[in-house]
Every structure is written in structure tokens, then in C-alpha cells.
Amino acid sequence: MSDNSAVVVGGGIGGPAAAIGIRLAGWQVTVIERTPVPDDAGAGISLAANGLRALTTLGVGEAVEAASRRQYTGGTRTPDGRLLARMDGTALERELGAPILGIPRAALHRILRAALPADSLVIGAEVTSVDTTGPSRVRVAYGDTILDAGLVVAADGIGSRLRRQLFPAHPGPVYSGSTVLRAITAQPVAGLDADFEPTWGRGAEFGHIAFPDGRAEWHAVVNAPAGLRHPDPLAEVRRRFGGWHDPIPALLAATRPDAVLHHDVHELATPLPTYAAGRIALLGDAAHAMTPHLGQGACQALEDAVTLASALGAAPTVEAALVRYDAERRPRSQTVARDARRAGRMGQQLAHPLAVAARNTAIRLTPSGAMIRTILRHADWTPPRIAPARARP
Description:
Layout: E1 5-9, H1 14-24, E2 28-33, E3 44-47, H2 49-57, H3 61-66, E4 69-70, E5 75-77, E6 83-86, H4 89-96, E7 101-104, H5 105-114, E8 121-123, E9 127-134, E10 137-142, E11 145-149, E12 151-154, H6 161-166, E13 174-184, E14 196-200, E15 204-210, E16 216-223, H7 233-241, H8 248-253, E17 261-267, E18 276-277, E19 280-282, H9 285-288, H10 297-314, H11 318-346, H12 353-365, H13 368-379
Parallel strand pairs: 1-2, 1-12, 2-8, 12-19
Antiparallel strand pairs: 3-7, 4-7, 5-6, 9-10, 10-11, 13-16, 13-17, 14-15, 15-16, 18-19
Helix pairs in contact: 1-10, 2-10, 4-13, 10-11
């Protein structure tokens, strides 16, 4: 491989996005993903303005918008359907110049992978070692193949093997106290008027994200011991949430039992001291895995991808580029992760009846302008320009 060659370990969202950006910066890129099929294909995500701006910078924004449903309507409710706060998607779009989008995660995966040359994707292969072979090369081994590269991007998720190798003393991910069951409905759901709607109970949240074809992703997040599993996950969700307001019963009725995914929510509660070591950069969940309570996990990974590509195009050396990447991304992403943790503690995870009542009252009394400013703090981000890299050592 040439001097301007990179290996991206991980083919979820952040990895392919980084590969697209790095290619725009003039590099050759190989993406290695251990799973043949994304393991979270039954999930959906919301993309705030910062995520869409990153995707637009990478050249795939229009394709993503075409596969998404804009989130204009909805709001936060109580289990009996009482509205706590209305979501004004139109006002947010006016402030940010970009909509909030709901898209199946698998559709976003397909769009990102389609933007890369087919021969740059290695699917179903696990990286077994990453070793520095000199001041300017990193050796990556998978199966019987060995690649030498000038840059390695560790986008291998919350359980990142590369993060453990680089930071053996770091405690790694910890259980957040929340577990999530989720699925995409098998068919369109009648009466699904809200584009996006979370409902908060005591230590529990049920939300949905509507898609353009009338189907929806729903997610049920509850406080639970780590590792707890149910013989029939859909039956458990119906037991817990079936009596909540419409359209929750209809969403569950439109779901196949074998479509339900169940994952404990882990996070990097101890921040990493740096996102770069030598010629290895950490990105996405490998760098800053966060709880889902702000819906910013994917968006922060997309910000990482664009910022890394921009730094590679502008800096005189790879090492200088990674110093810049770390300086720009670590403070912001770790702040968002901390805010997500706090949002969960005051939102879904709050369980004491008096505390829940006080929170609900506070939300009802909060002016809509203040709510919008809170969202803007995380979603208002301007992507840097990606320019082709100069020849460098």
C-alpha cells in the first residue's frame, strides 16, 4: 500500500463515514468489518442537524434525506398520553437550517457502504493484531492477510480491541443501569401521527421513530440488572408497556416476536485521555461510547469522521493531523457524553414518584425557546472543509 494508505477497523456508521472522508482527503482506504451483516439492522436512529451536515460534507446527505422521514411532529408524554413538551421540528429546522431525520440504521449503513469502492470493503474478517512497525507505518493483520498502512482508524465499537491495546489500564465500558429492547414494525402502523415521540414513566421510556413507508422503530428502555433476558422479549414489552397510550399498543401489535433486539446500554464513563496514539486514531463508540438519551451517538461518530478527514487534508504530517483531531473532537464529544448521562438520570432512569412528578412539572413549565436552545447546544455544529492532502512523510 502507498504512504497515503489507511485501514479502518469497523464497518458500522463511523468507520465507513471516516473511510469516505479519508478518501476525499486523497488517501487509499481499506475498511475491515468482522460481521458479514450489521448486527443492529433492526434499529432506527434520529439524525440531528450536526449528523446531516457531516453526511452532506461527505457527499451522501441527499441520499440519506431521500431514505429518511423528517421529524416535525411529536413530543414527550406520560404513560397516560398527557403531553409534557411538544416537539417543534419546524422551529428547529428554521434555527439550524437542517431537519431532524428518522432513518433505519440498516439504510444508513447501505448508503455509506455504497459510497465506497466495493474492493475497499473487507466483510466478515476480524483484525487480530495492529502493530507499529516503524515511525511511519502500522501493520494490520486479519486472517492470513497483512496490510501496512500510514494510518489506522479504530472504529471497532464500544468493545474496541484496539482501545484495550492502546489503553490497557483504562477500565473500559461500564453498564449504565439501562437496558433497551427495540424493533422495527413488520408493516405500516395505522394512526401513527407523530414523527418522533418519547414517553417517560418511572424508570422506563417508550419511544418511536417513524419512517417514510409508514413503518416505525420503537424502543423500550428500562432500569434493570445487567444481563437480564426474557424468554419472550415482545411479551415482556407488552406486559410492561401494553397499557400505555396509543399508538404504543399498535406498534407492538405490528411487531414480529423474532424482530425484537435486546441490548444492555454500556458507556465509557471514564473519558479517554486522548483519541490518538502514534498513527492510530480512535473514532465513534471506540472513543466515546455514550448513552442514547440525547440521540447523539451516531452524530458524534459522523462529526469524528469529517474532522479526522479534514485534519488529514490540512496538517503537514499524520501525527500533526491526529493531534488536531484529538484537540477538536475530545472536548466536544466527551461533553456530549456527559450531558447524555445526565439526561438519562433526569429522564428515563428517574424512578422515585416524587422526583418523577417534580421533573414532569418542570418540563411542562419550561418555555419552548429554552427547550430549543438545549437541543441547539448539541446539534449546532459546522463541519470543517475536507481538502486533498499534500504529499507527506
